[in-house]
Amino acid sequence: MRWKAGLWGLFLLAGCSTVHTAAPPEVEPLPPLVGWPQGAIALTIEDLRPTKDETEALVQTIEGTIRVWLRESTVPSDRYAMRIQILGYQAAAETGQPYWYGTTAFLVTVTDPTGNRVREWQILGRARKWNWWGYGTARAVAQESFQLAMAQLRARMEATPLVVLPTRGE
Hints:
Elements: H1 2-13, E1 18-20, E2 41-47, H2 55-69, E3 80-93, E4 99-111, E5 117-130, H3 135-159
Parallel strand pairs: 2-3
Antiparallel strand pairs: 1-3, 3-4, 4-5
């Protein structure tokens, strides 16, 4: 009976030393962020990964999500620039390991209208899942790491507004 369990384990782990990417998931719509006016941000997204699988879907998902987060406003004459560099988005498994590991990494830089860097964040989303369904699990863990990275980006933006809005008493 033990040899059956061993064969089953080898079957699950065989051929899993690989890297896999998948289309990113839709990010849950959240209300706009206070202090991040839509008209004041010029958004640029670059995919710097060596293997550019799913680039178009990845860029569109990030851009669409950021646009929803930005608050509607009148367009000021000077614009800030937000540059998001995609450094990683993948799922990987190693031979002998029963897990898929998902990693998503961004470098986000915000500059003011004069080109001075006002914000810079290193965003990293990591996830791990037991390898039950092969590439199906790989897809799920890559997407989970993407969701975690986007949540981390939103948290950073919430914590450090770009524009400090006056309160009612001012």
